[in-house]
Amino acid sequence: MVFSGYRALMSTTPIADLALVSDRHSAGLISRDGSAEWLCFPRFDGPSVFARLLDDEAGHWSIRPAVPFETTRRYLPQTMVLETTFHTGSGVVVLIDALLTGPDDGGHRLGVGVPHLLARRVSGLGGEVPMEVDYRPRPEYGLIHPILSVVDGGVTAHGGAEWLVLTTPVPLRIDDCSGHGVFTVREGETLHFGMQRSTLQETPARVWDQAELAARLDGTIAAWQSWSSLHQAYDGPWCDLVHHSGRVLQALSFQPSGAIVAAATTSLPEWAGGERNWDYRYTWVRDASLTMSALWVAACPDEASDFFSFLTTAAPSLDKDRALQIMFGVRGEHDLTERTLPHLRGWRGSRPVRVGNGAWNQRQIDVYGELLDAAARLERQIGGIDDDVRRFLVACADTAAERWTEKDQGIWEIRGEPRDFLYSKLMCWVALDRGIALAGLLRAQDRTQSWRRTRAEIRDTLLREGWNERVGAFTQSFGSDELDASALMVPIIGFLPPDDPRVLSTIDAIAERLTDDQGLVYRYRTADGVHGVEGVDGLAGEEGTFLLCSFWLAQALAVSGQVGRAREAFERAAAFANDVGLLSEEVDPGSGELLGNFPQAFSHIGLINAAWAIDEAERTARAGGAA
């Protein structure tokens, strides 16, 4: 792709053109043409400093050739440090981007002691290339146009609570709350830039010298590589993809607490121009069991244990209605009240732009099963849990037994009327099944007889009301004819044997009737493709195919022994990773363009779990053949 000149005013950067950088506190997105289009400080869900991704006037920082160029990109091996190579008619330049981590401690605790600094290294590889810097910080989602002042070796920016200091070896001309500079890079030359954030109450950000920035950037590269070498041992199929997805999950985790955010962004839409725009910079209890599996495969039990510890700290009790909150802030905050930012025009005009998430106070009864399934996966690691956590987990199982008959909003957090969702009831069955298995650890042997009775009652109800003979599948909710990809969890969580005819029929129905022309899976059908018509989820418009659900199909096929079909389904979904291996939430079924918040943890979790299931199925098949 050849770039020349700046683009039109509207925010139109393709999602696939973005690459993630992270220090495990904050996340930034760098475009293919060397622009920081998104950056939130001092944590994932903090207000943005750069948000051109959502509005062209909401801030960015670009370093790029001043002449037409083509780019190639990659992450440096075993890291989340981005390398962009610019090829021009007069020479070649490499740009390295990273949010600085703390010092390398042998890979044990990546992200401790971060300086909250985006570092950028420019190196000439051949010839000479004229370059330009365009620096436009716009704190608080673009509301603040800060005062910029030139200081020795840099530029300060202050306004509101933010104090930003840009380290730049290139003098910048200050105009209209922005800085612009030009320079030439010749073969063998290297320059370092950095932007550090602080508040007036913290140790103030400062100008860094070139040697210090270089050393800290090298240390960040070493820290990522140490973590990868220590934590990543998976050696099955698609090993590189699995390891990279593990690093993406690490990059989306908040080091101080162990929380993993669903994505690095807010309001990247499920359909361009639509209203299905949500803030995903929070952590969901629902992700727990799926994340446990993925971290076990692609990282190590320490990361899984950190996430579980966060969940059991953030949600230490049930509320007065014996309900468990479904999601939390990265430090365990409960109030995630949603609001809109009307001054932002949104990605390709997709409005409203939202911060906060109104689903935080929905009641969803599946979460008890996810939490207890996560505990079951970590049984060896949590043998020393304290009495408070033990009582909490017992209360979760008891609440699932009490509330499983209730209607709720379901896994997809519909904003319509509550229903008897299959998946919600299924996960209540999981809560009791895992509670029974953990009864000794939880000191709950006195409850197992009651839990067994309720588990059997849920099973009978699911087989009677969840199975739809007309459709030939388990359907979205009781009495519904609608297919839903979450029914693929029936064999994955062990509710029915994977060779049960109803399981095989459900898999086939979803593969045949809930997919697009490329074989990717929808969550469910919305409004039959009619824009502006309210769908089954209470929202107008369409959405793309869901990459997590596409990996679920691969996983369900693998579990049921259909390894060839599983491989095909896996490779169809994995093919939609961008050039640096990142997956979004959804894919436009017409154009194949990536949609939704980015990068999406669920999609990478699905990739890891599907790859592992295929590996296990192939090992089982080989063992059977050898026998």
Q: Label the CATH architecture of the domain at 2-228.
A: Distorted Sandwich
Could you report the average pLDDT, rounded to the nearest whole number? Answer: 92
Number of strands: 27
CATH structural class of the domain at 2-228: Mainly Beta
What oligomeric state do the depicted chains represent? single chain
Structural class: alpha+beta
Q: Note the overall shape.
A: globular
Largest sheet: 16 strands, antiparallel
Tally of helical runs: 14
Helix content: 25-40%
Report how far the terminal alpha carbons are from each other: 53 Å
Q: Radius of gyration from the CA trace?
A: 25 Å
Strand percentage lies at 15-25%
CATH topology of the domain at 2-228, anyone?
Beta-galactosidase, Chain A, domain 5
Unreliable runs? 1-9, 528-534
Write the layout of secondary structure elements.
Elements: E1 2-3, E2 18-22, E3 27-31, E4 35-40, E5 48-50, E6 60-65, E7 69-75, E8 82-87, E9 91-99, E10 117-136, E11 147-151, E12 154-159, E13 162-167, E14 173-175, E15 178-186, E16 190-198, H1 210-231, H2 239-251, E17 253-254, E18 259-260, E19 283-284, H3 288-298, H4 301-314, E20 327-328, E21 339-340, E22 354-355, H5 367-377, H6 387-403, H7 422-437, H8 439-442, H9 448-466, E23 467-468, E24 473-474, H10 489-492, H11 501-513, E25 545-546, H12 547-559, H13 563-574, E26 586-587, E27 594-595, H14 601-626
Antiparallel strand pairs: 1-7, 2-3, 3-4, 4-5, 4-6, 6-10, 7-8, 8-9, 9-10, 10-15, 10-16, 11-12, 12-13, 13-16, 14-15, 17-18, 19-20, 21-22, 23-24, 25-26, 26-27
Helix pairs in contact: 2-3, 2-14, 3-4, 3-5, 3-14, 5-6, 5-7, 6-7, 7-9, 12-13, 12-14, 13-14
Pfam families: Glyco_hydro_15 (PF00723), TREH_N (PF19291)
Domain Trehalase-like N-terminal: 11-169
Domain GH15-like: 251-612
